[in-house]
Amino acid sequence: MANPPSICIENLKAALNHAEIGQHPVEVHGALVGLIAGGVESQQDGWHKPLADLMHDGQPLPAELKHLVADMYQDATARLADVEFGFVPMLPEEEEPLADRVEALSLWTQSFLTGLAIIQPKLNKGSADVREVIQDLAEIARVELDVTEDEESEAAYMEILEFVRMAAILCYSEFGPEPSADNQEEKVIH
Fold it and tell me: What is the pLDDT of residues 57-71, one digit of tens each?
């Protein structure tokens, strides 16, 4: 499943700049995915207020930005709920310098953890796997590296990116919404 054309870093950056919001696009996506993975209420744009609190001092998001973030919310929710859709954090493309991608991954992870913690204040009561993953994510969020542009560094980045991706899916599976009866195809035999 490819991203809709509107969901890309450049479009989000332009909308953030137009709204005079000083967040990096990866921070917005990370916080939004953290809210989703934490189990934010999906009815009535439940993500809007906590995200506005995080990125716009509680002020409502301008209409254009809110529409774009709503598209991101729908996309991320669908991708987290169905592993086959291939959830991936919104990060710079692989053509960008590795140092920029590592920094963006760190920002995304910090924002993800912030969004997750706001919606899920009982993180310390999560499963042992989730608690361990969150500790690992906290380490990734603090990473400051002098990155060398070589195959070994690229491979390490890809490994960390895959870990972050799977960590978001794990958190969603633990704290996200319960699967609806429509999604469970259990047959009852009478």
Answer: 888 899 999 999 999
